[in-house]
From TrEMBL:
<protein>
    <recommendedName>
        <fullName>Beta-lactamase-inhibitor-like PepSY-like domain-containing protein</fullName>
    </recommendedName>
</protein>
<feature type="signal peptide">
    <location>
        <begin position="1"/>
        <end position="23"/>
    </location>
</feature>
<keyword id="KW-0732">Signal</keyword>
Length: 162
């Protein structure tokens, strides 16, 4: 009797750990091919979780103290990855120069990502002219929010008002 109670308790504990592990990974379990490709491409990465992205399976992880993501197709094909940069200092000189010479040079950088696909590397900047403040400034100018995309050579590929 005592042994069966202990066995039952152990089974419940193990299943509880499995449920918690799935909850920690967003409840999405990536296919084996995807996880194998991820592990091979990013050795030493600390996986936060897997999510479903419209393009495929998205891994959120940390590597070299930087927040990163990688997206894979269901067959394990790597599609893209992104690294959250800590500032313009992490961008190539050509991109920094292009931004510095643009009319957005004085804007605040809310987020900068280095996005790599099979076609190359892009720099996606979310910028604004209001320092992230949420205080109402009605009648004192206007808020402008933009997403700017540069290629690695500093060529402006996209400018979108948010």
């Amino acid at each position: 009797m005592k042994n069966s109670i202990i066995k039952t308790a152990l089974i419940l504990m193990v299943s509880g750990f499995t449920i918690n592990a799935n909850a920690a990974t967003g409840g999405v379990k990536a296919p084996e091919q995807v996880t194998a490709e991820f592990t091979a491409k990013y050795p030493g990465a600390v996986l936060k979780d897997w999510k479903m992205d419209k393009a495929g399976y998205k891994a959120e992880f940390k590597l070299n103290h930087k927040k990163q993501t990688a997206v894979y197709a269901a067959d394990g094909t790597w599609l893209k990855s992104s690294i959250k940069l800590s500032g313009t200092k992490d961008m190539p000189l050509a991109v920094k120069t292009a931004l510095r010479n643009s009319k957005y040079a004085s804007f605040y950088e809310d987020e900068i990502k280095e996005v790599t696909t099979q076609n190359g590397t892009l720099y996606v900047l979310t910028i604004d002219n209001h320092s992230g403040s949420t205080m109402a400034t009605e009648g004192y100018g206007s808020w402008e929010d933009y997403q700017i995309i540069y290629d690695i050579n500093g060529a402006l590929l996209s400018l979108k008002e948010l």
